[in-house]
Amino acid sequence: xxxxxxxxxxxxxxxxxxxxxxxxxxxxxxxxxxxxxxxxxxxxxxxxxxxxxxxxxxxxxxxxxxxxxxxxxxxxxxxxxxxxxxxxxxxxxxxxxxxxxxxxxxxxxxxxxxxxxxxxxxxxxxxxxxxxxxxxxxxxxxxxxxxxxxxxxxxxxxxxxxxxxxxxxxxxxxxxxxxxxxxxxxxxxxxxxxxxxxxxxxxxxxxxxxxxxxxxxxxxxxxxxxxxxxxxxxxxxxxxxxxxxxxxxxxxxxxxxxxxxxxxxxxxxxxxxxxxxxxxxxxxxxxxxxxxxxxxxxxxxxxxxxxxxxxxxxxxxxxxxxxxxxxxxxxxxxxxxxxxxxxxxxxxxxxxxxxxxxxxxxxxxxxxxxxxxxxxxxxxxxxxxxxxxx
Length: 390
Prior knowledge:
The protein is α+β, with helices and mostly antiparallel strands. The protein has 4 domains: about 5-35; about 45-90; about 120-270, Ribonuclease H-like superfamily/Ribonuclease H (Nucleotidyltransferase, domain 5), CATH 3.30.420; about 295-390, no CATH class. The chain has 15 helices and 11 strands.
């Protein structure tokens, strides 16, 4: 007897069966009379309880956290603790699938893309129909927004079919800079390699036996198999295509994603695109940004042979001060002119071929002055051909 409800029932049993008084029965059960007489003032939440059961019935593999997000979207003013309490009182629980034990190894975070359509991932998922025929599903995911771009279903998918799916996506949303794939024969074939060369897309192959290097698509495959493939019995190929496409649309537009702040992939992609457009709309000669004291800008000179010289500049109300630091290929330098001269002494073919100024949007009004000031100062240490670029 641990919970107060069970102790109250024990007191009632002692009073009815033994004829004990309230004080003596409470003393034997070791609860106070005030606790025995307490009645909850919590409002009845039958409608909320019914809605939780309905959502759990529709989304069988959703736990209480995702159901809580769906309730908040519908306008229910409920916190997560209350959702969890009602979820458990209703006897609901998602049984966790047994995962394969993986040996200990050093885990390294994957590089995160900075915008939509910068990096994709591809992989195959296998399943079967009720008559025993095997089917394969080609899954393509955007690494930034976690959007599922395509789920191609068929009994066999060749390299030509993979190229056809990518061409279809290119017409809809363009192509990324790179696509991460494993060493499957469809991905290593000449058809996909020739298409990637023509389209200017880099195929990034993971190391053999290291699926963790393609973690974005592997995580998606786990959700896809858990929420759709394991929950359905496909009768025909048409039935499988229809059910899988319905889940893909739901995954992109309705399912909350925990790593995206409980946003859907579609919402996260729109937010990322809006931030990119807002940044691009701020031009270098715009004067809309307020003047900030002590702002820091980064001026980068890109040189041949992957060499780069970075200046960290600071400005205050008196104008541009001396650079705070110089970084050449990740190593600090004492002086910009000495760095450029040492580069020329080491390799006479080094030449400045691009000038980039990284800045925060609120400092955009200062960008033009920084470029002009540093262009004039760099003229003294640059050749004539490099001055034209600057």
